Amino acid sequence: MRTQRQVVDYSLQKRAVLRELLAGRIGTYDVCDASPYLKNAARFHGEPTDRRCPICRSENLIHVHYIYGDELKQSAGQARTRAELPVLAMTLREFQVFVVEVCPGCDWNHLVEQFLLGRDGLAGEAEDADESVAANGSTPRRRREAQR
Ligand SMILES: [Zn+2]
After folding, report:
1. Residues 6+ apart with CB under 8 A from 107
2. What distance in angstroms lies between residue 50's CA and the mean position of ligand 1's atoms?
3. Mean pLDDT of residues grouped by 10 in the chain (148 residues)?
4. Cα(11) to centroid(ligand 1), Å
5. Cα three-residue angle 73-75-69, rounded to 5 degrees
6. Cα of 67 to ligand 1 centre, how many Å?
């Protein structure tokens, strides 16, 4: 996506969890704990992938995109389909996206990545930078974790 920026990749953390699991230091019940909300989000807003679940290996993983940001008002924390994100990115200045992978079979779930989207990402291309300076006047409230 064009305005995507500040990407944080969580594949190292995921591999660490899988290693712990293989070593028997944690059990599948620790990691296969997708909430009913997350499973619903996967069913209705999820993006199917062609990657097999690393735990049960019988289902393909589904990616759920959660959106956060003050501009979203009451929509903050909701799941959106991937197709909706570019539209939002052209409407809003900045919002955070958390991508969570979920297995519909065994309830494995893990954070995949997070990134920012929004029109502010276009500032370097077209608009002059004055606007982004004004945006720094307010302190955004931070939500550090995606809702499980
Ligand atoms: Zn699974």
Report:
1. 32, 33, 34, 39
2. 13
3. 93 97 95 97 97 97 98 95 96 97 97 97 62 46 45
4. 17
5. 55
6. 24
